[in-house]
Amino acid sequence: MRGKLIVFSGLDGAGKSTQIEILTEYLRSKGQLPKSIWTRGGYTSYFNYLKNLIRKLLGKSMPPPGRNKERERIMGNKWTQKVWLIIALLDLLRVYVIQIRLWLWSDKIIICDRYLVDAFIDFKINFKNQAIERWFLYKLLLWVSPRPDISFLMLIPVEEAIKRSGRKDEPFPDSPEILTKRLSMYQRLSNGEKYNLLDGLKSQEELALEIKKIIDISLK
């Protein structure tokens, strides 16, 4: 018996986390015990632990977390970028290939907040000079990661993403230029994938109803 993998991708602020919470409660009401997980390449708990450990060992020679000129200078080095990306990819292999597969083999329903396409867009925006799509490690990640049973893509206009980011008081929000690029990449990449496209401008209730209908059909 194999579990189900449900993936939510899309712009930050589109409502993924809210819909995942609603879906989790819905599945519990039907007797399921779903597990949800949030992932972002380079920002998982293990990766953050490693960064904090290095920061403690190096002390003041390491830049503080967040966006700052010193961090941009260090991360502008191509070898620093490569090391960072290699560790991030290995960490995603750990999460997607080992952790999630173990849950699937135990017949659980797994809900992922962000998945492979989100990681790829992050990498291409933050490391535009690295052709990560040609890397063996990235191709391996694509090859061995579990294929989602259901994929949702939630998008909103850039102007709305900026408004919602401001309301949430995001510490490091994307610029309008980066948001525009993200939206364009999601739209382009989604053409070749089997996504259930969701309009993040709809009410929470409307979106939840759409999602429940798709889930009910798929889990029959």
Shape: globular
Q: Kindly give the count of domains.
A: 1
Main-sheet strand order equals: 2-3-1-4-5
Helix content: 55-70%
**Could you state the order of secondary-structure elements as H and E?**
EHEHHHEHHEHHEH
Question: How many DSSP helices?
Answer: 9
Name the poorly predicted regions. none
CATH superfamily: P-loop containing nucleotide triphosphate hydrolases
How does the major sheet shape up? 5 strands, parallel
β content, as a range? 5-15%
CATH class: Alpha Beta
Structural class: alpha/beta
* Count of extended strands: 5
CATH topology: Rossmann fold
Distance between the termini: 14 Å
Mean pLDDT score: 86
Q: What does this protein structure show overall?
A:
- With 220 residues, the chain is α/β, with parallel strands linked by helices.
- The chain has a single domain, classed as Rossmann fold (3-Layer(aba) Sandwich), CATH 3.40.50.
- It has nine helices and five strands.
- α1 crosses α9.
- The longest helix has 28 residues.
- 27% of the residues are buried.
Secondary-structure blueprint of this entry?
Blueprint: E1 4-10, H1 16-29, E2 35-38, H2 45-58, H3 69-75, H4 78-105, E3 109-113, H5 116-126, H6 136-144, E4 150-155, H7 158-168, H8 176-190, E5 196-199, H9 204-218
Helix pairs in contact: 1-9, 4-6, 5-8, 7-8
